[in-house]
Every structure is written in C-alpha cells, then in structure tokens.
Amino acid sequence: MGQSWNIIFLLTALIAGAIGVFFSFQLMKRFRENYTNSYFYYIVFLYIFGVYSLAGSGILQYTLNRMEVNEQVIHAARFYTLLLGVPFLFLSKFMLFKFIAEIWGTRLPVIFTASYFLAGISLFVTYGIMIVRLSRFQLGEYEQLVTYHRIAFIAIMALIYLSLFTWVTIRSTQIVDHSRKRFLKVFISWYLLYMLFIIGAFALIPIHPLVPFIFLFLFLSWHLVPILFLNLYLEKNRGPSSALQDDFESRLIAFVSDYEISPREQEVIRLICKGMSNQDISDELFISLQTVKDHIHRIFLKTGVKNRVQLTNIIRTK
User: Fold this and answer.
1) Strand runs labelled E in the chain
2) I need a labelling partner for 162 at 20 to 30 A (CA). Which of 84, 136, 187, 259 fits?
3) Angle between helical axes of 139-171 and 71-103 (0-180°, round to 10)
C-alpha cells in the first residue's frame, strides 16, 4: 500500500476522533451535568492516547524507516512512545467508570478509585521496566514481545469493559426509572460491541497493512454513535438546560409534606435531583461541606432511603 494512502487513512482516523471530541465538548456545554463533563474528559484522554501512542508510534516507525535506522532501535522507540501514552489510556477508562457512577447520582467508592490507580501504577512501572530492558533483546525477541504486548492490551481492555458491564447490570436493578435503566443498558452494550470490534481489529493487525488503520479509525471514531445516543437521551429526559421535569416541583412539595422535610433540606434535595455533588451543593447554597453531609444524613433518616439514587427515584415516580 502506498505511503500516500497510509497518510490519508491516518488523517481520516485522526479527524474522526477530533470530531468525537468536538461533539462531546458541545454536549458538555449544552447539558451541564457532572457526567457529561466526565464523558468529555473520557473522550479527550482516549484521543490523546490514540494520537500520541497509536498514531504517534506509527509515524515514528515510518520516519525512522525512512532514515534507515536499525530495526531494533525502531522497535524500542515505538515501545517508549506507547509507554508514555499508557497513563492517558488508564485515565480515560477511569473517567468512563466515573461517568457511569454520576449517571446514578453517586460517586465511585474510594476503595475502587484507590485500587484502580494502584493497579494502573503497578502495570505502568512493570511495563516501564520491561521497556528499559529492551536494549538486551534480539530482533526475534522483539517480535515475540510485540505479540505479548498485543495480547496484554486485549486482555486489559476486555477486563475493563466486562467489569463495567457486570457493574452496570448489577447496579441497574436499583434503578426505578425505566428510561434511565434502558439508557444505561443500551449505552454499555454499545461499548461492549465496541470492545469486540477493537479486539478483533487489534488481533488481526499482522494480517494486512490496512488493518492498523482500521483499528485506529474504530478506536477514535466509534464514540460518535454513543455521543449521539447520549444527546438524544438528554434532550428527551432532561431538556437543553438540564432542568428538572415540569411536574417535579409538585412531586417535591408532596414528598416534603409526607416526610416533614425542612425548607433547607428541600433545597438540598432539589440539588441532589439535579445531579449535583456534595461540593456543588455546598457552593450553590453557601454552606460548609459538613453541613451538606449533615442535611443529607437527616434526609436519609427521615425518608428511610439509603442513597441518592433511591431518593431521586422516589420523588420522580411519586
């Protein structure tokens, strides 16, 4: 395949990814929710990894080949490029988990966050040590390492997306809102399909020179459909200003009357239903973070709910 076609395919993939970043930014601006912010950063980090590590390593290989550099040096340079992009890949997947948690109106557990980053740092250090030792490898060992690298990438991506699917499947049983439950299932199912395509394309890279470009295109552009789906869902269920449903206030008043909620607690509940975090509520009401937590604790005691999701669902289905 000619070098000019290589460049065309590469630019097509990069432009498609940039379009995804643009539309996710527009989504974040239009629907000012915590989870649209997280989704935007998920797309941004993923795009950085795709451009820097995947496209960048290919461009570096092409440039060094033109300079007739030793093949072992080329392999080592490519692996260093991939290594420096790995943190962006792990950050992107973390933002995806954060996005899903925020749709439920909650936060990721501290133990999950700590475990995730501890595992990420461990993998990064291990990978870095392996790259440093590349100078001792023979060319045949480089080729074997490329195969191991491909298998490891597939395994990690499969683990992340299957964990995400399992997590959503289990937690979705707590969601009373059928529209939200359906949205989550369709959204995560789409990403599972994405994962299968990625794994397939990545596993077939050695077969044909065109496959790496197909893989990069899928990796960067596949998110355009979920972005469209998320936009349609928010237009239907939240409105362009992220306002609550028209009848929400009447439902909230009835709820407040039933459970003897104070005026300040009513304000806190309203902001919880808008998807605000404790810190956001603190800033909005000009009260301390501890005061917000105290209000929420009393609300939970009065109403008998265990979390924000149950509280929101009770009001919206009242």
Assistant:
1) none
2) 84
3) 0
Contact between residue 180 and residue 234 where contact means Cβ atoms under 8 Å apart: no
Closest among 194, 245, 253 to 219, alpha carbons compared: 194
Whole-model pTM: value is 0.65
Q: How far apart are CA 156 and CA 173, in angstroms?
A: 27
Start-to-end Cα distance in the chain: 63
Asked if domains 3-237 and 248-316 share a fold, the reply is no
Would you report the helix, strand and coil content of the chain in percent, each value rounded to 5? 85, 0, 15
56: its two tokens = 């960048």
Could you report the per-residue pLDDT of 64-121, keeping only the tens digit for each?
777 777 766 777 777 778 778 888 988 988 998 888 877 776 778 889 899 989 988 9
Ramachandran sector of residue 33 (left: φ over 0; alpha: ψ -120 to 50; beta: rest)? beta
Please give the structure tokens belonging to residue 41. 């950063």
CA–CA separation, 39 vs 98, rounded Å? Answer: 8
Q: What is the mean pLDDT of residues 30-58?
A: 83
Q: Which CATH number fits domain 248-316: 3.40.50.800, 1.10.10.10, 3.30.450.20, 2.30.33.40?
A: 1.10.10.10
CA distance 99 to 205: 31
Q: pLDDT by residue (tens digit) across 122-135? A: 888 887 777 776 65
Domain ranges in the chain are 3-237, 248-316
Q: Class of the 3-237 domain? A: mainly alpha
Tokens 């065309």 found at: 8
Gap between the Cα atoms of 314 and 318, Å rounded: 6
